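Question (not urgent): is this output format expected?
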Amino acid sequence: MKRPILLLLLLLVIVTAPSAAGASPALQASQNQAILNFPNSVTFRAQLTAETTIQSVVLEYGDTQLTCGEVVAKAFPPFKPGKTVNVQWTWDMRQSGSIPPGATLWWRWRVTDSNGKETVTDTKTITWLDSTHRWQTLTDRNLRIHWYKGNEAFAREILAAARDGLALNRQSAGLEPNGVIEIYIYGDYEALRSAVLYTPSWTGGMAFPEFNIVIIGIAPNNLEWGKDATVHELTHVLVGNLTFSCLGDVPTWLNEGLAVYSEGGLDAVSQQQLERAIREDTLLTVRSISGAFSEVADKANLSYSQSYSIVKFLVETYGQPKMNQLLLALRDGTPIDEALRKVYGFDIEGLEDAWRASIGARPRAAVLNPTATPQPTHVPTIVPVGGAPLAITPTPFVVPTSSTSPENAPRSATPLPATQERGKSEQETNLSLLWAGIGLLCCCIFGLVLVTTGVIFFVRRGQKGQEHA
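Got this back:
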């Protein structure tokens, strides 16, 4: 009797199994794609089908940059509820700010049906890159070169220079790459500038440590400059990898000094300018080049040359381990003066005194109460949210550094773009003007109240006088 029951149960399993296997999933996402309009925008679209009426659709999207915490941008595309809906939404980089070529974008759809059931589609990715060029790729361990103009020998020279740059940075500051660094080589400066929105006209290369990406414009006939600039930008990525933090900040003289040092030294013109500044006692204070460099070309170039000289002094006098300790202290949020005292035994003024003595410069002029240069607080990059056009003019994004094309400057480095500190001071100025305007308005209102009260008082007094007359 037991055997027929078992056979019956087995038959039921066999009959019902195909039905379960062939059941359609609760949600289907077809034509789920991202359409790039490089470098302006990306449009996400999909056709979503559910077993019951779809009541809510949320697009979740972002990129894979390094941030202080998980950041998910959300958009709410318009649609008409139904069992099958077509949704579409555009992330407009012209409003949110651009991201570098080669960055990875991701997206998914969060759907809620009329029963309150929530379903999330699989996460999809796409590389943010123009399709107008036939990109080729060379890989060597932690380096990946992408290029489209020039032969393979050209690309291999860039790759060899980058490999030497990694070795030098490892030796001088203990810097190691955090994953594969992508280097995108555009055929010239104009092509580079057209690939990133809001790029200054003097830009020849840019570093994006939070993405592990370097982009640079190198024509095949400008190879020597290109190799130095590649190492320069690569160093910024390495520094950014090691010091990434939501707590601290790396002074500009240290960041740029390491980058120029990794190139192998100053060119003849920059060396002559530095020697003249030493001779004529026109060196800039170390504290003054802790923030943004001057926009005046001569001062900017001297800032780079001094930064190189200071870093050279620290590395060659005290060694690589201490430089690495200094960077780690800054990563942990230690202010630069305290970090210097902790590692080397002196603050910024003490560093300047020791550095000046080492290069034969005159002693630093004594200042009774030196004013520290304010350091901008590092703000994590947030995944931008697209949507309707903003009511204000979009602010160009700020990158840690950029190389200048030789046609625009006498050397391979130039002033940085506007810094957060500059933005902060402008904001404070606007705030002061706003409060001044509010104060003036209050005074006017108060005065008007006094005048009105006085008029009423005298009118009533006159009326009372007439009554008593």
